[in-house]
Amino acid sequence: MKVRRLAPALAISVLTTLTPAVAVAAPNSAGADAGPGAGAGALQTRTAQAATGAAAGLSAWRPCGADTPADFRCATLKVPLDYRKPDGGKIDIAVSRIRTADPAKRRGVLLLNPGGPGGEGLGLPVAFRPELPKAVLDRYDLIGFDPRGIGRSTPLGCGLTETESMWPTPYTARTFPADVARSRETAAKCRTAHGAALKHFTTRNTARDMDRIRAALGERAISYLGYSYGTYLGAVYTQMFPRRADRMVLDSAVDPKLAWRETFRKWAPEAESAFRRWTAWAAERDARYGFGATPAAVTDTFWDLVAHADRTPIDLGAGRTLNGDGVRDEMRGLFFQATDAADALGLLRDAAAGKPVPPLPEEPPPSDNEASSQFAVLCGDAAWPRSPGTYARDSARGAERHPLYGDFASNITPCAFWDRPVEPPTKVDNRVGALILQNEWDSQTPLSTALGMRRALKGARMVTVDEGEGHGVYLYGNACADAVATEYLTTGRLPARDTTCAATPGPRVAPFAPRGDAF
User: Fold this and answer.
1) What is the Cα 483 distance to its own chain's centre?
2) Which of 224, 233, 228, 253 is nearest to 18 (CA)?
3) What pLDDT is stored for residue 22 in this prediction?
4) Pick the catalytic residue: 59, 96, 228, 373?
5) 67 is catalytic
6) pTM score
């Protein structure tokens, strides 16, 4: 569910990817798990796990694919479509596992979620194994899963076109009627494709699925590592199943109180703050970049480029152009990462002047499954305003107050025409222990939203990377934050109080990126 954007060579797209480069075979029931059994430190024995899993609707474990590691195993779990009717219709949840590296030290399972919503998680054990410290691998079976509606779990698909998957979009009074019509048609397509079942593809039901995975694995509790949207999913789990939440790491956090429209509207003022910071940074480096010697001059350089692109769209080659709205959309997230923003703006300036620029591969559009499942969660978790007039007024005001992104952040979406949610949003307010990790400058989940998560989770501790840039902290190269998270996962010890880590100098290490057009 994204605007068609350039690949990260130019910009960090709103939809970044954490999909591991591993092919996973479609679920089947053949084969038996040949992996090692749980050791002396396990919470449950292998025999008990197998018996519990069978009783809970978990298929036999089998190889995940012909070209995947031998110890990477997959299974399918049957869960209720509607948990209010546990004996009613069932859907499939695709689950994967890599067992602990040292059964004698095993504590339990570590569920992994990449964010989204709409992010596939089945391949995450393979993606995370080379990145996680040995001490963590020794203590946990790594568990991946495709959330309901996604990937190899029972999938959603509304038959959306690329245009219908595009979101967020800029607002003008002239184009708004078309935005309304497109949003209405997208909602209607999803309703036609899935009927009443659509309203059950929500975060609360995904949390219930996670607890079914726990039970099927024979575990009394789960530990968890979730990024971006995955922090909300993890927080909802702690609220719904507080006694079954063990060690919970929430990386790049959303504010549970803002789910969901206000989460995206937050992007507008936060982008202005990041832009102001960036103009000062760029002015100090005028000799290198030539954008201007003062923040005001740098600001003028940017808006002059936007105006130029509105008059004459910037030619990026291969038939691709970028108008002023496109420049704003591309640069919003980049302004949180100073060097990347300067490089991208310089490239756009050169292209606008007719200079040759390097080939820039375009990021492919989202799949129908990805876009459909994301709309289902964002629209099904919480009610959105119904009146198109609300979006028009908010977008017009947003453009005045926050010209960089205010109109995008408040414009209409298919959620305006979605069926009302089955249940209210989860009020997260508990004292379950958890560790929140957050960069100070994060375009998708700003520091202010992570502070909202911290207020909701009163038993948590938060590590903020001072001047840290980008989306994702753990395993991204900050030794201080990595050490705190690894200590918590391996010993259960949280910091005595909220703390800060200094940003790591130099290029950001990013072995993977939290997934999500939303997050």
Assistant:
1) 23
2) 228
3) 42
4) 228
5) no
6) 0.91
